[in-house]
Structure of TetR family transcriptional regulator:
Amino acid sequence: MKEKIIAKASDLFLKLGFKSVTMDDIAGEMCISKKTIYKYFCNKEVLIAESTSMVHAQVHEIIHTIVERNYNAIQENFEIKEMFRDMFKNNTDSSPIYQLKKHYPEIYQNVLSYELDQCTQYFRANIEKGIQENLYRSDLDIELYVKFYYTLVFHINENTASEKEAQRIELAALEYHTRAMATAEGILELEKQLKKIIT
């Protein structure tokens, strides 16, 4: 039952926002009593913390699956971007990360430290892969570009209230990041990926 509550709460939090969803809403959606929820979670903050952990585990599992498909480095980034778009397409257009930072800063800080570590590893591996594939320049300061990109991505998500707007700016950031690193061959691959989004 605990896992079912976390799954339903995660779904509602992502769709409607962390602040607006109440314990009553979750109980009503599941056709259970609020007392049942409190049997497993002493308050909403604990449920939010567990829900965000579950969502992040799912996200990183999907990223891992995409990486294992062995796309080239640029396509890999676009496939991951598409995965995030699909995940949040039923959202009421309120960015979950923005809400988490605003209303539950302590939970947000815990999420951030974990995410920073995971994203740094992924961004580094992607840049190294792109260099090997001659899509990114070989003279890049990898650690610096990793830092540039996660600073950009986290800043967008932390400060953009609208999920739709965050997605739009993130795509522009991905293009900006890729162009900054790309070889001539990489630019051709980037243009190909951008064309797929437009069509």
